[in-house]
Amino acid sequence: VQVVESGGGLVQPGGSLRLSCAASGFAFSAYGMSWYRQAPGKERELVAYISGLGGTIKYADSVKGRFTISRDNAKNTVSLQMDSLKPDDTAVYYCKVSGFSNWGQGTQVTVSS
Questions:
Q1: Which of 22, 24, 31, 107 is the most buried (most CB within 10 A)?
Q2: Which residues of 10-31 are buried (b: 16+ CB within 10 A; e: fewer)?
């Protein structure tokens, strides 16, 4: 199982970013996928989850209405569209496959003016 995150960067408050996660080594559509984040000095937290076929989606309260998770099972990718970004969204973002302990290297998102 391997996941590779990309798409992070520096953005001003109110801006947008789209993160992508490319997955390999397992039957992608059979597994839920999640995005987590970890800010400096804080524990890693769940941001969003999408089930294997996309029928179930969940968000942390802190990102509801601003972030959108989606997946493309033909391309083995999961994305996180982040809009109306706030400084509190600054963190390293990771994607994770449900049921596996593997983590990718993460992608840094910094929201600052």
A1: 107
A2: ebeeeeebebbbebeebebeeb
